[in-house]
């Protein structure tokens, strides 16, 4: 499995018992969706390795207590502490309306109500306080804030993001 075909679910945070169980921190608002998984991909030495789950249960809201197949000792568990865990993108719950996953809108055209289509979303920068659409317009790169008040519509069938941006925001780049 390639990392590009997966989404980040969380990471193995710490050991839970002397029998090889671990606690995985889940980076999600709905950890209960992932309570009955059969397997996960653990990033180990820069490769995604499938790990099969014998049993799992929620632990203190956003942790999942996991017992993996063939992991029976503390040493086994130590080997995967701090490793990220992934699932195939196909396992993401479907979103509708104006809710979207960041990876979902890459390649969409971006359109302003006043100015029309002004570029294509090439990536999302979520390392800032406010996530930003990184948009290309020819050789020019624009950074557009992902603010709910600016977002009018996610048009999935036509692969467009319609926005109502403040006057001057796009013009300052072009």
Protein model, in words:
- The chain has 174 residues and is mainly beta.
- The chain contains one helix and twelve strands.
- Strand 8 and strand 9 form a beta hairpin.
SSE blueprint:
Blueprint: E1 6-15, E2 22-26, E3 39-44, E4 47-59, E5 63-68, H1 74-78, E6 84-88, E7 109-112, E8 116-125, E9 132-137, E10 140-145, E11 151-155, E12 160-163
Parallel strand pairs: 7-12
Antiparallel strand pairs: 1-2, 1-6, 2-5, 3-4, 3-6, 4-5, 7-8, 8-9, 9-10, 11-12
Short description:
This protein is mainly beta and 174 residues long. It contains one helix and twelve strands, in the order βββββαβββββββ. It is elongated, with a radius of gyration of 20 Å.
Helix content: under 10%
Task: Assign the CATH architecture of the largest domain.
Answer: Beta Barrel
Strand content: over 45%
Number of helices: 1
Q: Can you tell me the CATH class of the largest domain?
A: Mainly Beta
Total count of strands: 12
Give the CATH superfamily of the largest domain.
RimM
Shape, please?
A: elongated
The overall number of domains is 2
Return residue spans where pLDDT drops below 50 for at least 5 consecutive residues. none
The protein's oligomeric status is single chain
User: What is the mean pLDDT?
Assistant: 93
Largest sheet: 6 strands, antiparallel, barrel
